[in-house]
């Protein structure tokens, strides 16, 4: 950025959950951020109604859970499903299904408040228009925006992140391909009033399609209707409540046409993923990077986790603590996660939304989910608790090597006991710094991290005995990145300095 006058360090396009989470993360890491959002005010509509277990942990790692208004414990349910085959997710260690009944609008409001308090400059009514060439090899990125007054002006920053949703203009402007499969099936969503329904929280397959119904607020029900074989509708066409009521009647036999709707919308099973999450100084996150069938409430959750992965890395590069190659780990880590998201939602679509030809598959799934290993595997996928980043630093894709089993996985939530009483792994991450857990009161371990007090907090603690002797897989020291993933774990300082250098830069 030398020699250029930047308006800010990072421009984030889009104040959806992904952009707002990223803005907070960037501020926590000390970077300046401008968020531009074309809508003058939030819509008040909520596509999502909750988030996955890993997204919930991510919010916990920033101290955000109490802001959802329900204390430290959100409404969760142990019951979940994969493609409609329902089972109890408590087979997972530390299991909890994600948070339920939290409208996406509430999540966005929590994140907007948080990012704003941290100093993010959120500009509503500002629209991203275009990107000036040179973002691939220049020392800054310049964009054209339309201001609320309708004027066009330029903004310049070190980096640009497109969090502008599935039809991302940033993605197109950066020339990033979005390969995948077109929509083959259309589905409806409506928030209806004036009717009383039977809850079908996880969705129910009936003759003719899948329906879901859940109470949203006093007198308002969210319904989703997925009629078998309905072709994908034209995205420009406005869906009417009568059309949704007709589809509901065809499948359930229930007449809701006397009611009304505060919101009617539609969606499809189009499935696509950006070929690259980074091109030069431009990055993509959230729906801008991946779209898919909303199965299991995974979209917002994945966007929030993309942001948690990218934010601290960008901030470290901006502060000068890390070099640019750290930013390549964003695509390396998150693209495979996105690909797995697309795989699992497509698989769920075939099982749950297929017509009678999928009946044998549904029968087979119902049999398979009787087995604990199968439950554990499927719950791990849709809760996002099974994510393991390949942190070996080579391109072999072999992450098994000699690394400790915790490396690349999210730090398991644990209660920790130290000189100042009890804490938790999540609480230690509230600062957005890395954390070195010194679990055996080892001066050698503490010395190793001493040169980075501004980036890595050292906590001399031990796991609560009630969590079991192997609560941390035998490790006596664990290095946790700001996004809650284990960068290194061991029983001696061997390899620790290398990991500290790689993720947090040189000591001062
Ligand atoms: C029926 C349905 C149910 C769902 N349920 C869940 C659920 O329970 N849990 C879950 O995790 N996910 C769920 N999802 C998915 C979730 O809604 C999305 O994944 C999530 O909204 C993605 O967030 P985002 O911030 O990446 O993008 P978006 O929410 O799309 O936000 C993008 C923002 O960018 C702005 N923008 C766009 N273009 C520009 C521009 N040129 N300039 C400036 N601003 C711009 C937009 O106005 C918007 O505010 C569901 C989706 C559907 C369809």
From TrEMBL:
The keyword Iron does not apply. Pfam families: FAD_binding_3, Rng_hyd_C. GO terms for molecular function: FAD binding; oxidoreductase activity, acting on paired donors, with incorporation or reduction of molecular oxygen, NAD(P)H as one donor, and incorporation of one atom of oxygen. Transmembrane segments: none annotated. Its cofactor is FAD. Residues 7-344 form the FAD-binding domain. PANTHER family: BINDING MONOOXYGENASE, PUTATIVE (JCVI)-RELATED (PTHR43004:SF19), TRK SYSTEM POTASSIUM UPTAKE PROTEIN (PTHR43004). This is Monooxygenase. It comes from Streptomyces ambofaciens.
